[in-house]
Model the fold of this input.
Amino acid sequence: MDGKRRQGRGRGLSGHHCGELIVSILSFFKRKGSRDSRKVETQDRGILVFENTSEVIRAETVLKGAGWKIRVMGPPPEIRTGCDLVIEFPLIEELNILRTLEAAGAKPLQVVPVNSPLLQPVDIFQTRDYGRYLMVRAANMKLTVDKETLTVVNISGGGCPDVPYLAREMVGRTLAEAPAPEEIGHTLCGYALQLAYEEMRRQC
Done:
């Protein structure tokens, strides 16, 4: 009887081989799932292209005010209209988003599905870690913060008339204490600084 049990066990998978089989199956589905998720993510997005940055800002305000999940980014190399920004949005909501923009008089020049690597929008943020200090750049504006205290230590870039005022109001204060650039700025530099400010708060 014991011999039969041993023979029966011998015909099955050993614990070692069974473990290898499970790992192989999980790895296969993980790789497949990763490819599928990347594919869905690529097909599920689109970009709104506008004539100038002011129209992007206006459209962003309208869409965020309506509760849409969008993101301002740089245009892909294949799309150059003279505007440095585009709006990324969920492609499945294209018709509703266009209706919202048309009702507000903020219709884009074109809508482009992100279905090719050449049409991928570009992240407008650049982040550099200088040890104790962290710098975030958005478009032409740079915001630097002390990572230990979250105090704004420097604001630079732009060339707009309100940049010195923005720096005076924000430098020396923590991210929580400093006014948001959108509250006190009046130019495209203030808008870019607001993007850097939001990204810095997200990272810190």
